[in-house]
Design goal:
The chain is an alpha+beta fold. The chain is built from 7 helices and 6 strands; from the N terminus they run H-E-H-H-H-H-E-H-E-E-E-E-H. Strands 3, 4, 5 and 6 form a 4-stranded antiparallel β-sheet that branches. A two-stranded antiparallel sheet has the order 1-2. The longest helix has 15 residues. The protein is globular, with a radius of gyration of 21 Å.
Length: 221
């Protein structure tokens, strides 16, 4: 990393990076390769998925050509043309395959560390009044101490998976459903954007998890 590049970047107040293929890079050569990995995995259960990758690519093109500003994963799977497909299962598998194939771009990681080096000054400032429209509540949990189990659900209330959060962990909840179980006495900060609408803000539903998912050695080992 050249010093001249670092010096030039240090002059800017804001620097914006794309996430995929910039901050995060894939082990596969092309983003679409993940769909072929999915196809191989899905075909082990049912041969009707033999052309899944092609259909998934077509669905993305169709969703992006709609009037939406940016196509979401839900938008894409609404356009996929495979009879009898379990959309929630496919989305879960896609996220799993993406997670396995993504890694941090070490070059940019080191660059960001440099741009936040000791002695950097962020000038005092105030934020302007801007009227915004909020459609969904998003929240951030910061675990100070203890252990928290987080259960993730789709928008249709189908269980996906669970994770354990411990002291120092931070999670951002943007969409979908979620539930919590305190595994050890907990102190945490919960940050939400407002305004909070009390009873209209959420729909509660019953957990499908009956048996404990984690043993104490899973998070105290």
């Amino acid at each position: 990393m050249s010093q001249s590049l670092l010096d030039k970047l240090s002059q800017y107040k804001y620097i914006s990076f794309d996430v995929f293929d910039t901050l995060l890079i894939r082990k596969e050569k092309c983003a679409e390769d993940v769909f072929y990995l999915m196809e191989t995995r899905l075909c082990k259960e049912n041969k009707k998925f033999s052309n899944f990758a092609k259909k998934r690519i077509e669905a993305q093109v169709k969703a992006q050509n709609s009037d939406k500003v940016e196509a979401t994963l839900d938008d894409i799977y609404e356009n996929i043309d495979i009879c009898g497909i379990d959309i929630d299962t496919c989305k879960k598998i896609e996220l799993e395959e993406e997670e396995k194939n993504l890694k941090a771009n070490i070059y940019l990681k080191n660059l960001i560390k440099y741009l936040h080096k000791k002695g950097k000054i962020i000038k005092p400032h105030i934020h302007n009044i801007i009227v915004r429209e909020v459609k969904y509540t998003q929240e951030v949990l910061i675990i100070k101490s203890g252990v928290l189990q987080v259960d993730f659900y789709t928008d249709s209330r189908k269980y996906i998976e669970s994770y354990i959060l411990k002291s120092g962990d931070i999670i951002i909840l943007i969409s979908g459903g979620h539930g919590f179980k305190v595994l050890e006495e907990l102190e945490m900060f919960e940050v939400k954007q407002g305004p909070y609408m009390e009873g209209n803000d959420k729909i509660r539903f019953e957990s499908v998890i009956e048996e404990p998912l984690f043993k104490e050695e899973d998070y105290n080992g």
